[in-house]
Write a structure and sequence with these properties.
The protein is an alpha/beta fold. It has 9 helices and 15 strands. Strands 14-13-12-11-7-10-9-8-15 form a 9-stranded mixed β-sheet. Strands 3-2-1-4-5-6 form a 6-stranded parallel β-sheet, sandwiched between helices. The structure holds nicotinamide-adenine-dinucleotide (NAD) and (2S)-2,3-dihydroxy-3-methylbutanoic acid. The site of (2S)-2,3-dihydroxy-3-methylbutanoic acid (89V) has 6 residues, from α7.
Amino acid sequence: MAELRGALIGCGFFAVNQMHGWALAQGAGIVAICDRDPQRLAIVGDQFGISRRYTDAAAMFADGGFDFVDIATTVQSHRALVEMAAAHKVPAICQKPFAPSLADAKAMVAVTNAAGIALMIHENFRWQTPIQAVRKVLDSGAIGTPFWGRFSFRSGFDVFAAQPYLGEAPRFIIEDLGIHTLDIARYILGDVHSLTARTRRINPKIKGEDVATMLLDHDSGATSIVDVSYATRQETEPFPETLIELDGSEGTLRLTQGYALTVTNGDGTVTTDVSPALLPFASRPWHNIQESVLLIQQHWVDALKAGTETSTSGADNLKTFALVEAAYQSAASGQLVEIGTLL
Ligand code: NAD
Ligand code: 89V
């Protein structure tokens, strides 16, 4: 099959990683880019040698000539751009967070279903090499049936330097980062039927919460804790590592700082290095995230060619996004939230 032609909308901070990913992905390439900021358009267009450049997404869709669109803008524009893609019957990838609200996200799934086009949310954290390694251990049966888990991301890294908008939003860590951690919890322990959350703001310079602790009841019967913080200073800064603890009927698994995966069961204890690759365009400490960008984009190309549903399709990601909404509701009310009432 011929190389798939992609168009990318939003040439900001993170899109540079996506453009590098497209340059390395097999079977697809970017032929057109769009950003309403001409400066960003010029920087990314020149860096990646893209001559078709637009400041208006509607004009780019009208001209056409691409097989999919990669939406790398911030959340406010996601629904309008996905609706534009659906109107032109162009399969779409949309960055997380899915949408400003669960109602918007549901409408985006409905409009793409009605148009018969694929929608994938760029929820890349489950594609990280250490997270895939955890999944493989579970699938091998080495720890039996998991009954308890902890998914933890605690950092003091200054994320506001590269993404200043994160300090301005009334919702911060759950919507921006916890969304990834909640998705990993779903990916590893399965869907969730109820959630309880507590939040705090420690950094007085930002508007939203920067600490959250969530208790998840999974359909499988497992219980997990998802805890995230950007107010945690440690001797060795772990950004952007997600640390995982799983207890199972036959053993335990620990993914610890430095990408070490330790499995203990009746056969003893084995520790494996599950570090991500340092891709040619990548830089530490972001390389874990950067590699997962290439992996999710390759997954999109392969699925689009095969006509199969992606791992983080719109329909799948609604279930992660519902956990985000539930966490804010629970933190506000102090009560447990049943996920079924939201979906
Ligand atoms: P950014 O503000 O640096 O870039 C967004 C760009 O989109 C800007 O250049 C802006 O001009 C452009 N834009 C906005 N609306 C537009 C529209 N309607 N038409 C054309 N251009 C438009 O933001 P960022 O930090 O690159 O984040 C972008 C998205 O990526 C966010 O949703 C963020 O949450 C997500 N993100 C994901 C990861 C990840 O690992 N998956 C990491 C960082 C950021
Ligand atoms: O992955 C993200 O969405 C980023 C960061 C890791 C900084 O939270 O915004």
